[in-house]
Amino acid sequence: MKAFPETFLWGGAVAANQVEGAWLEDGKGISTSDVQPHGVFGEISERKSGDMGIKDVAIDFYHRYPDDIALFAEMGFSCLRVSIAWTRIFPNGDEQQPNEAGLAYYDKLFDELAKHNITPMVTLSHYEMPWGLVKNHGGWGNREVITFFERYARTVFTRFKNKVKLWLTFNEINMSLHAPMTGVGLAGNSIKAEIYQAIHHQLVASALAVKACHELIPDAKVGNMLLGGLMYPLTCKPTDVLETLQENRQWLFFGDVQCRGEYPGYMLRYFRDNNIEIDMSDSDRQALKSTVDFISFSYYMTGCVSADEEVNAKARGNILSMIPNPHLPASEWGWQIDPVGLRVLLNMLWDRYQKPLFIVENGLGAKDKPDADGTVNDDYRISYLNDHLVQVREAIEDGVNVLGYTCWGPIDLVSASKAELSKRYGFIYVDRDDQGNGTLARSRKKSFYWYKDVIASRGSSLKR
User: Fold this and answer.
1) Residue 34's closest CA among 13, 58, 14?
2) Domain limits of the chain?
3) pLDDT tens digits, 245-291
4) CA 394 – CA 408 distance, rounded (Å)
5) What are phi and psi of 294, to 5 degrees?
6) Tens digits of residue pLDDT in 359-405
7) In this structure, are residues 169 and 207 in contact, taking their beta carbons and an 8 Å threshold?
8) Which fold has domain 9-456?
9) Does position 319 have pLDDT exceeding 60, yes or no?
10) Are 278 and 262 in contact, with CB atoms under 8 Å apart?
11) How many alpha carbons lie under 13 Å from residue 164 in its C-beta half-sphere?
12) Residue 215 or 333, more confident
């Protein structure tokens, strides 16, 4: 296998609400993640005294980050994607002044990464926002939240401008259509018009953060983050192809606005056809012109699209409400495994935007079981990642500018979808179960050594 470029960044990605724990420590406020004990699609449960959730401790990265970062360095990471918990900086979201203890924590985290020559990539809002902004202000449905987010973004840009040069605004911003509470702080039964108005406010806020980043850290790069939801037509019927085009545009729309600086015509038609009126001011339009420097995205699976309502009705009954591809295998969680789809997606995004791309999430969730001696022989994970990275190398040969790859998540963490620890992604095993039992001890899986070799060889150890 031909080596990856020398400048290619290798590493992993985690999110504050899935690894940190310390959920009320050092002045942190309650986030939307804290009131979703069963994951991003679960019901809201207001915290009462004595309530405990798996994410309250998670894997205790808040206290154990030096040891975990040392393990990442042992693998040879040159990049770690993390997120800042917004509620550590502004506990309720609407304060005038930030919480110094929260800023100090991330100072220490970034210093630890620098000690190991690991470049931080920092997401401003990763599937959480202050619960106070939802309760007291109506979430992103309220235009006022744009101001609160810009204050937060400017605060962290100013504080960490000498330590962080790679930033992302919102994690998987297109997920708001499927999980409105997680994405924009709106109730799950909100109507489309309300969700799209909230999304508009978030897109404006993202653009204002890009503008602020360019002003405050001129040598920084700031990107967006999309859930790469590539869909194929189930058949070559023209109606299936057209339906697939429309389905892909539902998520590409976010990239179009963030990369091109305005709403695309197909989305304006969608709003007209669905009687959705977006309150969009001239200042909003001007703000949107601040476009991202690069595109980052997650990639886990692909699906199929049909114009046949009978086929669609059957698909809505499966775990992912998605038409499965009859030519692909699936993981334990029903996620179809499609390495070639990653090459297709990389080429598609490059052709569409001509901006550098960064794969910031890709991985396999599985029920890892340690052997008698404690070893986790996760050959299935090695196979999955190997096959995907081979396709990344192919895309680079195709001429696609790929900046790096941070797999999800390099250490076992609490899954976003259902808040489970049994769905493991890591190269590093964490001794904790879904009930919170375990020592939290870390141990290296077989894939740890495999990924170390991949990084050391710049990908030339990958097997076709």
Assistant:
1) 58
2) 9-456
3) 999 999 999 999 999 999 999 999 999 999 999 999 999 999 999 99
4) 21
5) -150, 165
6) 999 999 999 999 999 899 999 999 999 999 999 999 999 999 999 99
7) no
8) TIM Barrel (3.20.20)
9) no
10) no
11) 29
12) 215
Catalytic residue among 194, 361, 394, 420: 361
Q: How far apart are CA 82 and CA 135, in angstroms?
A: 26
Residue type, 418: K
Closest Cα to residue 175, out of 58, 297, 276, 317? Answer: 297
* Annotation marks residue 277 as catalytic: no
Joined tokens for residue 8: 């290619």
Q: What percentage of the chain exceeds 70 in pLDDT?
A: 99
Q: How far is CA 314 from the centre of its chain?
A: 29
CA distance 292 to 271: 24
Contacts of 452 (CB under 8 A, 6+ apart): 74, 75, 76
| Rounded Cα distance, 31 and 21, in Å | 12
CA atoms within 13 A on the CB side of 35: 20
- What the block records as the tokens of 117 is 């020559």
Residue 295, both tokens: 């595109």
